Amino acid sequence: MLFKKMLRDMKEHKMQFIAIFLMSFLTLLVFAGVGAEVAGVQQSVDSFYEDTNMADVWLYPNEINNQTIQKIMDIDTTDDMERQLVLPTTADIVDDPSVDLHFVENNTIAKYYPMDGNEFDINDEKGIWLDKRFAEANNLKVGDNIKLKFNGTSIEKTIRGLGYSPEYVYSQGDSLLPDFKMHGFGYLSYKAFIVDDVPYNTILIKTDDMDYQSKLDEKINYSTYLPFDDHTSVNQFQQELDQHNMIGNLLPIIFVAVALLTLLTTMTRIVNNQRTQIGTLKALGFSDRTLTLHYVSYGFYLTVVGCVLGLIIGELTIPSLFFPSMSAFYTLPSWKGGFDIKFVYISLIMIVLSTFFTYLATKNISKESPASTLMPKAPKFSGQGLFEKSKLWNKMGFNGRWNYRDIKRNKVRSLVTIVSIIGCTLLLITAFGMDEGMDDLKSWQYGGINHYDNQVILEDNVTSAQIDDITKKYDGTQFMNQQIEIKANGISQTSSLLSYNKSDLITPTDKNMNPIDLPEDGVSLTEKTSEILGVKKGDTIEWHLYGDDNWTSSKIDEIYADPATQGITIRPNKLEELGYNFTPNMILTNRDINSRVDGVSSVNNFGDLQNTWDNLTESANIMIGVLLLFATVLSIVMLYSLGVLAFTEAERDLATLKVVGFKTRNIRRLFLSQNLILSVIGFIIGIPIGYYVLRLLMDYSGSSFYYPIHYSIRVILIVFVIVIGLSIFVNLLFSRKIRDIDMVESLKKARD
Asked: What confidence tens digit (pLDDT) does each residue in 175-204 have?
């Protein structure tokens, strides 16, 4: 009997209950969907690292000999180690792409992962195991020969297999986006090197010792110590997953808050309207406990069904939205969704909270006697507050006074409306802010800062004479970009050292994208790096080039901002003064380069660079789409549900106003103005919260990118039109019902 009653109640108040169901459903859809993508990809990459015995440390000693090896092995926490010679080479095929060759000692750490062809053979002197994505981009297959050039020498090997490497999950070539046609890697046996005495330059180490570096410092000298978490591939990929995870955690918080408040408001109203029924059931012998469980079951059943469906559908659908853009940017043997036990925990928490909030709405009436519940509930009494005693109150019209007191009497419903609008505003401002930010960054990077038409990438063995000839011939600017390690305040950061002479082709800017001049005789630090290190202009940092263990202490003479390259900029003369050679690896020019030029590895034109940025932001665009979709769903569902609730609760008051002579248009204005006021309040509060959330999302984008947040009037106006427009539209739908109010029936319901 009670179950049938619950179904009838749900049918009668279907919009509110549909809203509660949808909030539960959407909460788990987003949380489990995005979480499944993150969990699945995390499980895939962890499995990939485990299968290939990924290194824990990359060490670049000043000298690798038997004594060095013995000292490392003497450290009791060294589990295993392997030497490699890593060489940048140029493939003798169309466009002369670069290939990083790994001459490995035994292929036991960070192992090559074959997908096609033969397994890696350490005794094969004539074979090479190539990057599968590089091979596919260049139409190479197993059995083909490939010639590679380095340091004036060339070798030719037969492709034995195609596969992946755990060190190249993310592989940045000459541009931001991996270019698999122009950059790849290959693995060879140490026996395949041109001389027997292989000049190893890298040591891969396995250890689970968190204090390993301090023990190593006591044993040997080295130029660079690179732990697992700081490896470029590992770090970039993990930051991408962290950003997705944050999106997945953000949306459910909003939906849960709105769903619980809606549930509390709806159940409170149902229980109050069914006092007579509850009194009758008590008189018939139903216990307080039975009736409490009956009403608590409303929220319980809705939430259980919503959570279960959201969890299942989210896991099956949402991960596949991200995989195409993720696989274009990163390389893994497989892409699949995963499961995390926290999905179940969140479902249980959602169900428990929903049940608890439903209990809060029903607990008071269960304590009343059958006789008292058969009587109508006394109307809410709201005494005069300070505002109502003020002079401003006396100047207010009837409309303002009525709305103020109605909001005061229905605090929870008003709070739900404001929270819903805050949630909608937050999601929309975040989505449109991200979209505008991406456009701003593209125009900032390729127009505001960089004004060249071509990046001329130089070969590694290019001579100074060739560099000067190319620079003169194409009226270019020599540009040096080297990896460095910076540290300050106990924090170290892998960054870039940029060096170039002042040129019209590059315009340094501050964080507001305004042009600035960098000092000719000083060191300039990027805004992002300064935030990470916690330093400012005038502070001191220490830095060194990778491959050089000499640290340099420098005062920060200027802070500038760059969206894509973080680190320091030093003019060539100052760099030479500090004891470093200015060795450009790129020439920037506005001239076209149509023919093969000696010393040039590749050329990136302006259009290619812009396409690279578009591809880079594809994953972010999916995020924006998800935010916009759910913000719109939240707005429509909640505003309509709240409109039903507000109209139903105000029906008696509106009928009373009609009885005393108020015209329908005046009552409609009265009804609409209250909801508009609440919507504007929620919108105003949501703007700064949206800014904070957007800043948080951008900070999770990693240490390589800098996203200053600038709300434009356009974004605020768009969000205002959407949020307030939807609010007005939904409330107009209900305000039209005012002329159809049956005054006698409404007042009779109130009396009953």
From this structure: 556 788 889 999 999 999 999 899 999 999
Interhelix angle 618-659/664-699, rounded to 10 degrees, is 160
Strands 552-560 and 523-526: parallel
Q: Which residue reads 């000499």 in tokens? A: 550
Q: How many Cα atoms sit within 13 Å of 732 on the Cβ side?
A: 6
Give dist(CA 495, CA 231) in Å, integer: 12
CATH tag, 477-589: 2.40.70
pLDDT tens-digit readout, 560-616: 999 888 999 999 999 999 989 999 989 999 988 766 788 887 787 777 767 766 766
* Rounded-to-integer distance, Cα 216 and Cα 62, Å: 13
- Contact 636/722 with Cβ under 8 angstroms? no
> Is residue 715 within a helix (H) or strand (E), and if so which, with residue range?
helix 713-735
Q: In whole angstroms, what separates CA 677 from the centre of its chain?
A: 33
Ranges for all domains in the chain classified under CATH 2.40.70: 477-589
C-beta neighbour count of 468 within 10 angstroms: 11
Nearest to 567 by CA among 445, 482, 649, 625: 482
- For residue 382, give Cα distances in angstroms to 271, 379, 404, 407: 21, 10, 11, 11
Cβ-based neighbour number of residue 445 at 10 Å: 18
What global pTM score does this model have? Answer: 0.75
Q: What percent of the chain has pLDDT over 70?
A: 85
Helix, strand, coil % in the chain, rounded to nearest 5: 55, 20, 30
Instruction: Report the distance separating Cα 528 and Cα 653, nearest Å.
Output: 57
147 alpha carbon, distance to own chain's centre: 41
